[in-house]
Amino acid sequence: MDEMARSWEKEFPQLDISGLPPLVRLARLSVLMDAFQRSVLGPFELTSSDYDVLSTLRRAGRPYSLSPSQLYGQLHRSSGGMTKILKRLDESGLVGREPDPEDGRSIRVMLTARGISLHDRVFRAFAAASNRLLAKLDDRQKSEVDLALKLFLDSVEDWGDDGNESAPTRR
């Protein structure tokens, strides 16, 4: 990475390229984090989208239930994409659908006992794998990395909020 930056500085001495190395590192981290996530989820036969739904429902607290629109709003998915995920999770017995007690025309998606059990096993696997991944960092370093990433994420999300049409939406 540093060699690449030096090469670009040599080829474009008139440009400030100081923003490129962190972005290239983050792009590489994105690829590696996708692989990390797949390695944790693979043994459980879940996709990251599946786990996102299970995790969002679990974080909602008892009775671990949300409307489909709440789910796709929180996860920034299209309603069609969410429908596919929910169908797959329903067929797997991980979520169920029930009438909304406050609005009989609507439904709520809820974690089943099997979904709660699977989510909690996967969550423990993620926690253990994350701790192994970051074992070389002490608590202070973890806090510093987390703060730097928070600031960077805020900056990128602000860029998206400034009307950049191709920017992802804030989570």
Explain the overall architecture:
This protein is mainly alpha-helical. The chain has three domains: 1-44, no CATH class; 46-131, Orthogonal Bundle (Arc Repressor Mutant, subunit A), CATH 1.10.10; 134-171, no CATH class. Helices cover 64% and strands 10% of the residues. The protein has seven helices and three strands, in the order αααβααββαα. The chain has helices at residues 2-11, 20-41, 48-59, 68-75, 79-91, 113-133, 139-161, and strands at residues 65-66, 95-100, 103-111. It has a three-stranded antiparallel beta sheet. It is elongated, with a radius of gyration of 20 Å. The mean pLDDT is 90.
Order of helices and strands: HHHEHHEEHH
- The quaternary state of the protein chains shown equals single chain
* Cα radius of gyration in angstroms: 20 Å
CATH architecture of the largest domain: Orthogonal Bundle
From the N-terminal CA to the C-terminal CA, the straight-line distance is 29 Å
How many domain modules? 3
- Work out the number of β strands: 3
Number of helices: 7
Helix content: 55-70%
Shape: elongated
Q: What percent strand?
A: 5-15%
What do we call the CATH topology of the largest domain?
Answer: Arc Repressor Mutant, subunit A
Q: Quote the average pLDDT.
A: 90
CATH structural class of the largest domain: Mainly Alpha
Widest sheet, order of strands: 1-3-2
Structural class: mainly alpha
Task: Pick out the low-confidence regions.
Answer: none
Q: Note the main sheet.
A: 3 strands, antiparallel
CATH superfamily of the largest domain: Winged helix-like DNA-binding domain superfamily/Winged helix DNA-binding domain
